[in-house]
Design brief:
Mean pLDDT: 85
Radius of gyration: 32 Å
Strand content: 5-15%
CATH superfamily of the largest domain: Bovine Mitochondrial F1-atpase, Atp Synthase Beta Chain, Chain D, domain 3
Structural class: mainly alpha
Shape: elongated
Helix content: 55-70%
Order of helices and strands: HEHHEHEHEHHHHHH
Number of domains: 2
CATH class of the largest domain: Mainly Alpha
Low-confidence stretches: 273-290
Length: 290
């Protein structure tokens, strides 16, 4: 509440636009719950205070735009036991324009930021706000990822070979899209050793459109991991292909070197001696018969 009051001062008195961070909005709910318990109020469902909706609404409605300025808020939301139907996060989400959900499964795959595009949402993703191309590409990406999610159980039980050719193509594109959604951050350079990338919106839309249309189905999935635009993914694919060719060449060289080794020559000589002795014994047997 103190932070919102300070933000309102900057907005109304100084006429500024304020960026307000809340970490964590669930703590506001917990504090209200503790005060409610001390006041002897009867708790509502799941033990929360009966005034949860009223308190949250009073706070969130103060975060708005006026003729003097605006307040834009980023709020971290703790979800108890990953239950999105819990009254606390459910009440918070009702007041948010956009939500970004972090996925444990994507994090386990090493895809960072681990943002789940299927459960994340934005009211701004509308053709009347963004371009039609932007909206269509975003919808196509979500449809492919949603179909891949539906096929995961079948793949786990029967294997990918049991899918139709169309579904196999969708799975391949979905896996490329998942890796293409990873981003090399500037703030993570010292940890990943990769240079941070900034990609313009138009380039982002073009890149995802080409992947959705299947123009890069021939590229390996690893080429889409931690890159910027699609052109960088193509270059990375060429680099990976060159490394594979070099490794294959080295393997062939080692194999030929082993064939030319003294042990190989000795074994061939022994094989020749055995053949000679066999021929000699066969000749003796023929002489005895005669």
């Amino acid at each position: 509440l103190t932070g919102v009051t300070i933000s309102e001062y900057f907005r109304e008195e100084l006429g500024q636009d304020v960026l307000f961070f809340v970490d964590n909005i669930f703590r506001f709910v917990q504090s209200g719950n503790e005060v409610s318990a001390l006041m002897g109020r009867m708790p509502s469902e799941v033990g929360y205070q009966p005034t949860l909706g009223t308190e949250m609404g009073a706070l969130q409605e103060r975060i708005t735009s006026t003729k003097n300025g605006s307040i834009t808020s980023f709020q971290a939301v703790y979800v108890p036991a990953d239950d999105f139907t819990d009254p606390a996060p459910f009440t918070v989400f009702a007041h948010l324009d956009s939500t970004v959900e972090l996925s444990r499964s994507l994090s386990a795959q090493g895809i960072y930021p681990a943002v789940d595009p299927l459960t994340s949402s934005s009211t701004i993703l509308d053709p009347s706000i963004v371009s039609d191309e932007h909206y269509q590409v975003a919808q196509q990406v979500q449809n492919i990822l949603q179909r891949y999610k539906e096929l995961q159980d079948i793949i786990a039980i029967l294997g990918i070979d049991e899918l139709s050719e169309e579904d196999k193509v969708i799975v391949g594109r979905a896996r490329r899209l998942q890796r293409f959604l990873s981003q090399p951050f500037f703030v993570a350079e010292q940890f990943t050793g990769l240079e941070g990338k900034f990609v313009e919106l138009d380039e982002t839309i073009r890149s995802f459109k080409e992947v959705v249309e299947g123009r890069h189905d021939d590229l390996p999935e690893q080429a889409f991991y931690l890159v910027g635009g699609i052109d960088e993914a193509v270059e990375k694919a060429k680099t990976l292909s060159g490394e594979e060719d070099e490794s294959e060449g080295e393997a062939d060289g080692e194999a030929s070197a082993q064939d030319d080794s003294p042990e190989a020559e000795a074994s061939s000589e022994e094989a020749g001696e055995e053949e000679g002795s066999d021929d000699g014994s066969d000749g003796d047997e023929e002489a005895e018969k005669n």
